[in-house]
Amino acid sequence: xxxxxxxxxxxxxxxxxxxxxxxxxxxxxxxxxxxxxxxxxxxxxxxxxxxxxxxxxxxxxxxxxxxxxxxxxxxxxxxxxxxxxxxxxxxxxxxxxxxxxxxxxxxxxxxxxxxxxxxxxxxxxxxxxxxxxxxxxxxxxxxxxxxxxxxxxxxxxxxxxxxxxxxxxxxxxxxxxxxxxxxxxxxxxxxxxxxxxxxxxxxxxxxxxxxxxxxxxxxxxxxxxxxxxxxxxxxxxxxxxxxxxxxxxxxxxxxxxxxxxxxxxxxxxxxxxxxxxxxxxxxxxxxxxxxxxxxxxxxxxxxxxxxxxxxxxxxxxxxxxxxxxxxxxxxxxxxxxxxxxxxxxxxxxxxxxxxxxxxxxxxxxxxxxxxxxxxxxxxxxxxxxxxxxxxxxxxxxxxxxxxxxxxxxxxxxxxxxxxx
Length: 420
Hints:
This protein has helices spanning about 5-15, 25-30, 45-65, 75-85, 95, 110-125, 145-155, 160-175, 180-190, 195-205, 215-240, 245-265, 280, 295-305, 345-350, 365-370, 395-400, and strands spanning about 15, 35-40, 65-70, 135-140, 270-275, 310-325, 330-335, 355-360, 370-375, 390-395, 400-410. The protein is of the alpha/beta class. It has two domains: about 5-140 and about 250-410, EreA/ChaN-like  fold; about 140-250, no CATH class. Helix 11 packs antiparallel against helix 12 (about 245-265). Pfam families: Erythro_esteras.
């Protein structure tokens, strides 16, 4: 199909989008879902956060969604969860509650956009019984050391076999001094891993929340999911030194395991909103990831839950973004160059510069089968190497809906100095 024909076909299914008031179709389609996955094309774009927040508010108020799960560490997100639920000593305001986000890249969650959403959640939860409050949780696995320390602190008051198991796990990891690379080498190359200690710890904490009092129920969940984060991190670091694709798979399978646990905790009829990068929530089978043997959250949830999963991707043509030049580098506000010719973003811009919403499936199979580059910006970004930022994608098979924002701006970190 020539380019003009494809543009004409896409323009026929593109709807105007100016914000949550134009998202009625998404909200109504979410009526049948248990998981609504809200993506982002970068970790540093303000509009991706604000539109996800607006959609989440509607899903919570109109459809009864019970929690938001994000691509963040469990301990720091749990601190924010305590704040939005109005717990004592959880922070004087959202900015204070976000201070636990100290791991690079801090701007992903310690930003003005999240602070505003957290204040809304706290207000929404005010006066509700504990079991009806909407939670905010992190489902990633990078918090190995933080989660061990959280477990030791919690279990010290309980004593017994659980504390002894946590101490054994801590003693196993302690020689590596908080250095993930050191542990990865020892575990992968020399067989000096801590897998047995971690599995034993998780087993001892499994499902203790089921028999806990209302007051202690979420505390027991917190302990178990810290142990699950330790197990996931141990597996991830042990694997990453040998197989890049497999370490990715370990991470996304872990995030799905956490989501499934959270769904059980919140009850049979609970519903989840998930905020992650497009590369996690968009079905990997609709991209070239499948050729590398990679899976992701979107694919795994669809395989398990079918039509109960509704995935919304995001993209932009140009603007600015917060990112680093290398891993651990200072945050910078960078220009997002105009999308490459032939990409989905460039095609949607050529149709017209207004923001757009695409809903799938469309009635046009030719559009459904089209594969083009789809931009993905991570926490590290090099605009001068733009070609490497595109993932070949069949858009309508990767997502159930796609929100295109023609021009976007960088989000607003709370504490990090931003280098222009």
